[in-house]
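user: can you give me the structure for this one chain? tokens are fine.
assistant: on it. calling the predictor now.
[tool input]
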Amino acid sequence: MARAKARIVLIGMVAALAITAGCSGRGGEKERTIESYSAEEIYKQAEFKLETKRKAKEATKLFGEVERLYPYSEWAKRALIMQAFAYHKDKDYENSRVAAQRFIDFYPADEDAAYAQYLLAISYYDQIDDVGRDQGLTFQALQALRTVIERYPDSDYARSSILKFDLAFDHLAGKEMEIGRYYLKKGNFASSINRFRVVVEQFQTTSHTPEALHRLVEAYLSLGLDNEAQTAGAILGHNFKSTVWYEDSYRLLTGRGLEPKLRGKNWLATLYRQMIKGKWL
């Protein structure tokens, strides 16, 4: 295996020298242009720059030359998916998406179509860095990851996409929590309740749900809405009794002579009844 790898590197080096240096300086021969090389030679030079020299930007240009000079060839198809990969490696996510989408459009039945769709998805996902950023990329990542999962359910990329989907979903809930906490701290209880409600109703499978319920207890108590606060505490106790969030909510409620219990007719009461029937929503 080591010998085979060495041969690949050697071929790439030879191609690199041939394309970059050409044949000038010998007998008055003119330097060869990129058009005079075969698709395989250009492709291997691009591979060499990507794998050995780690020059992703130069590799993307050479992969593009393969497609330009030898369109619809097998080498052009291989070069297009590699160009998408090289763009992603260079953190040029927009061009990575463009190349990946072109591959999907041109070769929808190809075995690498699943990888192209996965590259398109992670080009969004890898731009999600912290909860303070705009969430448009997160929604796009979720949509693209869902496409991988639904279109290629038996692929390795589907399994990876499921994990990333869950993390991105949790990320969105984290954004709602961040805004909700801000409103709560500022005493804008109605706005904070709206944010925490979104987490409880739309992101109930994420790790943020116990805290969201506790924050609802806090906000409703601050507004004097005891029925809602008690019901939020009851839901918290039913699903997350062993958490510190339930302990804090229980302390808040009992400190006011209240208890976690279904009370009144409100959105939380409806949620509680659905939950008791064996359904979270």
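assistant: here you go. The chain has 13 helices and no strands. Residues 1-15, 21-28 have pLDDT under 50 and may be disordered.
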